[in-house]
Design a protein that fits this description.
Elements lengths: L5 H12 L6 H7 L3 H6 L9 H22 L5 H12 L1 H10 L10 H5 L6 H19 L1 H11 L1 H10 L4 H13 L4 E8 L6 E8 L2 E8 L2 H17 L26
Antiparallel strand pairs: 1-2, 2-3
Helix pairs in contact: 1-2, 2-8, 4-5, 4-8, 4-9, 6-8, 8-9, 11-12
Length: about 260
């Protein structure tokens, strides 16, 4: 897909979204990472950061509207938790992977080599930028149609799981099985101070399990706990801390052998 020209790249995006852009330059900008622009200063590309800024609000509004309509008995707090589950970095990256957006992105060589095509933060930013481009191109109803189509799976999932605290669920599960708590460790921080992205890993006993990213340590820990629960549900074994070998059973005092 890296060999696609601009028109082919936009056409592939339209096919995956199930829509068309009357201003394809907006779609191309939404797919352009700042690292590509930095490495191609003589070309007329613009990066997707301004669209990402607008897309954050567009995603918030469209997802919030669907939650409001779909869960008429939910409290404000419950809807807030459902909203955060869907539009956090992990949730948006999941939507991006469903659309295979990573292969359509224009990335710089350094970003490409470092795994940018599958990085949660890059994918989530691209989703926001694309929905902002669609909003500017054809209005909010077009965005809502795309959200209904491509967020359907996560909306169905949230209807089954909303209100659950993934850290609490993981804590209860691990305590019940291994009698020890999961441990959370920040493994990286990136981005400017006002928009940091934290990456957290979960350790259970001697093993590293899930990882997650988020705009705060708390959000990243929840994402890591969520990933860990998914791994366990898929059959990943909880081994815990190796136990001390039990001493052999005592044979008791030996009787004197008969003479």
């Amino acid at each position: 897909m890296s060999k696609l020209n601009s028109q082919e790249r936009v056409r592939a995006l339209e096919e995956r979204l199930g829509t068309t852009f009357s201003r394809p330059e907006l779609a191309l900008t939404a797919l352009t990472h700042s690292s590509y622009v930095n490495e191609h200063p003589d070309e007329s590309f613009r990066d997707n950061e301004r669209l990402e800024f607008l897309g954050d609000a567009v995603v918030d509004l469209t997802v919030s509207q669907r939650l409001y309509e779909r869960f008429p008995d939910a409290t404000e707090g419950q809807m807030s938790r459902m909203h955060d589950y869907i539009v956090d970095t992990v949730g948006l990256a999941r939507v991006a992977r469903g659309l295979k957006l990573g292969e359509l992105l224009l990335l710089g060589r350094g970003e490409e080599r470092s795994g940018g095509r599958d990085r949660n933060s890059v994918l989530a930013d691209a989703v926001e930028a694309i929905l902002a481009a669609l909003y500017l191109d054809s209005g909010l109803q077009s965005v809502q149609t795309v959200v209904d189509r491509h967020f359907a799976e996560v909306l169905d999932e949230v209807s089954r799981t909303f209100g659950r605290d993934f850290k609490t669920r993981l804590q209860q599960l691990v305590q019940e099985r291994l009698k020890l708590p999961p441990l959370y460790q920040v493994v990286s921080e990136s981005g400017p101070d006002h928009r940091k992205i934290f990456e957290v890993e979960v350790c259970i006993g001697p093993e590293v399990f899930g990882r997650g990213t988020g705009g705060s340590k708390r959000e990243a820990e929840q994402a890591a706990a969520r990933h860990t629960l998914e791994l366990i549900e898929q059959g990943r074994e909880l081994k815990g801390v190796p136990s001390e070998p039990e001493p052999p059973p005592s044979e008791g005092p030996k009787e004197d052998a008969p003479v």
